[in-house]
């Protein structure tokens, strides 16, 4: 029997174990990384070189941090909904690895 919810983001009781909480954080981090890769081209198309405060080496250096920050915020606010199914699958795989019944005899 599964110990994780079927719908929605996990609640406090779902994250009670350190293993579940780490898996949730990893799922959110993965979603943030995916969102960052998706929104990165948007920032490449903005012409900031002619603006009063745009362009230059500073902007080039800090733009990846801005993109990551936006993506992290989006993921922590629900994102695209990738974290929940990823988290569920991670827990499912961990449960299967810990279950003695999951070991199949190759013979």
Q: Overview of this structure, please?
A:
Helix 1 (18-44) crosses helix 2 (56-76) and helix 1 runs antiparallel to helix 3 (83-98). This protein has one domain. The chain is 60% helix and 0% strand. With 107 residues, it is an all-alpha fold. It has helices spanning 18-44, 56-76, 83-98. It comes from Rhodovastum atsumiense.
- Overall body shape: elongated
Oligomeric category: single chain
Count of helical stretches: 3
Main β-sheet description: none
| Secondary structure: helix percent | 55-70%
User: Could you say which structural class the secondary elements and strand pairing correspond to?
Assistant: mainly alpha
Mean pLDDT: 82
Radius of gyration: 20 Å
Say how many strands there are: 0
Write the element-wise H/E pattern from the N-terminal end onward.
HHH
Outline of this structure?
With 107 residues, this protein is mainly alpha-helical.
What labels would you give this structure?
107 residues; mainly alpha; 60% helix
Record the SSE blueprint.
Layout: H1 18-44, H2 56-76, H3 83-98
Helix pairs in contact: 1-2, 1-3
Pfam families: Rod-binding
InterPro entries: Flagellar_prot_FlgJ_N (IPR019301)
Domain Flagellar protein FlgJ N-terminal: 42-89
């Amino acid at each position: 029997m599964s110990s994780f919810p079927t719908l929605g983001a996990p609640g406090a009781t779902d994250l009670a174990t350190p293993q579940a909480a780490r898996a949730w954080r990893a799922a959110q981090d993965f979603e943030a990384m995916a969102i960052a890769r998706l929104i990165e081209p948007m920032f490449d198309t903005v012409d900031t070189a002619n603006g009063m405060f745009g362009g230059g080496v500073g902007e080039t250096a800090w733009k990846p941090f801005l993109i990551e920050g936006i993506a992290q915020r989006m993921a922590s606010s629900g994102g695209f909904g990738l974290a929940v199914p990823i988290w569920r699958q991670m827990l499912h795989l961990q449960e299967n690895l810990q279950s003695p019944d999951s070991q199949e005899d190759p013979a």
